[in-house]
Here is the input.
Amino acid sequence: MAFQKKVFLLLLLPFLASAQYTDVINSNRPGVSVSAYAVGKNVVQAEFGLLYEMQDHSDINSDSKIFGGDISLRYGLLLEKLELNYEGTYINQNITFNNLNLEETRTDFRRNRIGLKYLLYDPFKNPEANKPNLYSWRANNKFQWKNLIPAVSVYGGATFNLGDNPFYREDATISYRGMVALQSLLSPRFVLISNIAYDRITTDFPELSYTISLSHALRNPKWSVFAEHQGIDSDRYSDLLLRGGIAHLFSPNFQVDVNFGGSFKTTPSRLFVSTGVSYRLDFHKDELIQTKSEDNTKIKKKSMKKKRKKKKKKDELDF
Here is the structure.
């Protein structure tokens, strides 16, 4: 019986050791909120998007149209809990100043940063505390207060302002960014993500922001919808934004999405739409970890192999 328990644990360990990794792509799109979880060790993931935005500024009587693209490159670095990521948004803004009958074009990075994210706490790390109820569908799908306990990760990185950027003329070449990301699985179909970020630290215009995002998987789990609220506070620009959208999973490694949203103010007013894709190259491999059985002996990676050899020798002697 003890050997059977060891075999069961060895079969289970790969799943326990890879809590960050999932069989289906884990994308931060279609919103701007960031998941608390990393993509998984040795997973390479790219998230691309095209965007279009209209802005009207009532104080200076200007209209503008913005075209651009954004990219996020994510890599599971060294550990299951650690992720290296790059985020960039490059735009072309055509502005018309109606009072002056003047037009201007601005082109550069609106977002250009690199950083590391690390998972500090995962409420699902202990499988014993999160076993499904095999006798009740309702017990597994109803809301439970413990589901509000979030996974917690921290992020640290740098924002780069290269050349004469018309959007951030006063900023230094390098500034810094910190963030806390929270993620709660409210039910099997609802996920709540919250981010609090402090960006462009050490510049004259640091930016404090928060994002709250709620996602819902539809009856066909390949489809999901989301609603998101973002608040931005800075001496240069402050706003409250609302987004919504939908995503479709074509395969475990490929997702497409579309989202749209706008602002609550007129200085400027903003209406925007974006569509994108997420794709991953999955080089993840499950790793066995050492643990102890009930008799306090260590289960080693080669224990099953040794058992098989001993059994084979015994069978040969018996024959």
About this structure: Residues 1-18 have pLDDT under 50 and may be disordered. Residues 200 and 206 are 5 Å apart (CA to CA). Helices lie at 2-17, 137-141, 303-318. The first helix runs from residue 2 to 17.
